[in-house]
Amino acid sequence: MPVLSAAAVALLARSSLADHYVVPSGSMLPTVQLEDHVVVSKVAYGVHLPFLPGYVTRFAGPERGDVVVLTAPDTGIVLLKRVVGLPGDTVRVRGGKLEVNGASVRVEEHSGLAYETLGTSSHALDLEAGGGPDFGPETLPRGRYLVLGDNRGNSRDGRYFGLVSGDAILGRVKGVVIRDGRPTWIGL
Fold first, then answer.
1. What's the whole-model pTM score?
2. Which residues span the domain enclosing 19?
3. What does the pLDDT read at residue 120?
4. Which residues belong to the active site?
5. What is the tally of structural domains in the chain?
């Protein structure tokens, strides 16, 4: 009986509170690397319960710039991407660079890397493989988000599979906990 209780608590915690994922691709380079282990807050945007789709209770939705784990709407595969467009935003992507509500999102060079500023934070942006497909302009409907990879020329993201429902967003990535097989902490 104690083993079953422990298993039930672990299942509830993993599906409702926090989880970890191993990054399967380079679509978020240079921010998150292939085979990084990331920890995800499952309660960042609401409460999930095991075996029930979507949120039981909803908090505030993702913010522009959040790195999230989501279920791809076309394949059901769990992906890691950055939220770049919020419900009500008009978003356009040209050459991998963003325009939100008619204003270009600032991209600056520092030490040979491009940095994009979304919300209150900056993150490295990889445009070496080009910018990938263009998108929009499109106004995002209620409850829908546009997500992109930081490696814009090598990312299967919202430009391919479309806008993401808020219920498909499983949680917010808090940081990298294992890189190159070694424990670390890189907050996101």
1. 0.86
2. 2-187
3. 83
4. 27, 81
5. 1
